Amino acid sequence: MMQRDNEATKDIVVIGAGVVGLSTAIRIQKKGGYRVTIIADTFPTDQKTIRYTSHWAGAHHVSGAFSDKRQRVSEMDKETFEIMWKDSEHGGPVQGCFLRHNHTEFRSDGADPTEWLDYMPEFRSVSNNELVPGATHGWTFTTFTLYPPVYLNWLLNRFLTDGGTIVRSQLQHISQAMQGGISGLPQKPDAIVACVGLGARFLGGIEDKEVYPVRGQTIALRAPWVKYGRTLSCADGSYFYMMPRVTGDVLVGGIRVANDWFPVPREQDRNYVLAGVLAICPELAPPEVHAERMPTIDDLRSLIVEEGCGLRPGRKGGIRLEAEWFEASPQTKIPVVYNYGHAGMGFQSSWGSASIALDLLEETLAGGKLDTNKGTN
Ligand SMILES: Cc1cc2nc3c(=O)[nH]c(=O)nc-3n(C[C@H](O)[C@H](O)[C@H](O)COP(=O)(O)OP(=O)(O)OC[C@H]3O[C@@H](n4cnc5c(N)ncnc54)[C@H](O)[C@@H]3O)c2cc1C
């Protein structure tokens, strides 16, 4: 009996150990009937690197689904919010990770996010006297920020504790994961799930040129007196954000530049971000300074504890959630599910996109062939 169960268990290889790969691997593992192996070049336990976007995220849950009209994006964000909202409960399973807080989204770009955000707790639009400089409208609600290094390691720990296997290797071609030959990988996997983020642009067999980097540069300020978040999206395309972390730091940013591969912080970007966030939140300056005079960005410099750059995995057409039968060799044809291209929303859509990837996997293994990108625009 035992032997038949093992034979029925399918071997799945997930490529990628960012937030998307880890969440997808756990989702498949939890379904039962699968033995899951993650292969990746970089894991959450590694030092931060430009090659691994997930370490650099904020990460807050403020859905931007309005910028991608696909209903599916909104549903992915909502499903993820419901799961993470439970995880973020005081005394929840991942201590030292989540901070629930009030967030206000200010805009002057004409977009109305009500349709995408009205499920957020205590959602309401703000009155004119609550607007920050540069804003014409605002919406406020309760959300959470998670601390990526802790969250990602918690996911990895869950995966391993539940019997998952990890293998470190940089693949040159997706077929290398299909035919055995890499120590630790199953000789004959039943399916591959590709969650390779920006790597989809380069990995042989995928080489998706619709994938491009959207550079971000963030600054962590030691400002434990600020316990709320704000974003401002302007008509000219400029965008600033600040989000408090459970650590007592406030992460600030405002750089979102497509096709900029520059891997380290730029001074001009630092000054631009500090000026932008100070305008929407002068309270970021130490309270004694703020009480006496209008703070300047020099008052924020001494609060800087970390700076970094991350490349969001942008994709023309949005997240790729598709499955196909891939011909690794004339003798080897196996299902590949694609789940990459999450741009600036990989955390907030992680569980939702993992659910879709699992559905694609099961339908393809059952003999079907699906493309959920169709009919959703
Ligand atoms: C500044 C900034 C702020 C952000 N803020 C937020 C936020 O507030 N909320 C939010 O939801 N999102 C946010 N994001 C976006 C989020 O970080 C990304 O969408 C998410 O991290 C993408 O995850 P991923 O798993 O697809 O990619 P990655 O984290 O880059 O992981 C890719 C994985 O694939 C592996 N891989 C790739 N190619 C290969 C190969 N050839 N062989 C082996 N392994 C390979 C890598 O080693 C890695 O393990 C932010 C991003 C940035 C840069």
Topology:
Blueprint: H1 2-8, E1 10-15, H2 19-31, E2 34-40, H3 71-87, E3 98-107, H4 114-117, E4 124-125, E5 137-146, H5 148-161, E6 165-168, E7 191-194, E8 211-222, E9 228-233, E10 239-244, E11 249-253, E12 257-258, H6 267-280, H7 287-292, H8 297-301, E13 304-315, E14 320-329, E15 332-340, H9 350-365
Parallel strand pairs: 1-2, 1-7, 2-6, 3-9, 7-15
Antiparallel strand pairs: 3-5, 4-5, 8-11, 8-12, 8-13, 9-10, 10-11, 14-15
Helix pairs in contact: 2-5, 2-9, 3-9
Q: Mind telling me the C-alpha Rg? A: 21 Å
| Structural class assignment | alpha/beta
Contiguous low-pLDDT stretches (5 residues minimum) are 369-377
CATH topology call of the largest domain: Rossmann fold
Organism: Pisolithus tinctorius Marx 270
Cofactor: FAD
Pfam families: DAO (PF01266)
GO molecular function, one term: FAD binding
Keywords:
377 residues, alpha/beta, Rossmann fold, D-Amino Acid Oxidase, Chain A, domain 2, 2 domains, 15 strands, elongated, disordered C terminus, binds flavin-adenine dinucleotide, FAD binding
Note down, in words, how this protein is organized.
It contains nine helices and 15 strands. With 377 residues, the chain is an alpha/beta fold. β1, α2 and β2 form a beta-alpha-beta unit. α2 packs parallel to α5, α2 packs across α9 and α3 crosses α9. 47% of the residues are buried. The structure holds flavin-adenine dinucleotide (FAD).
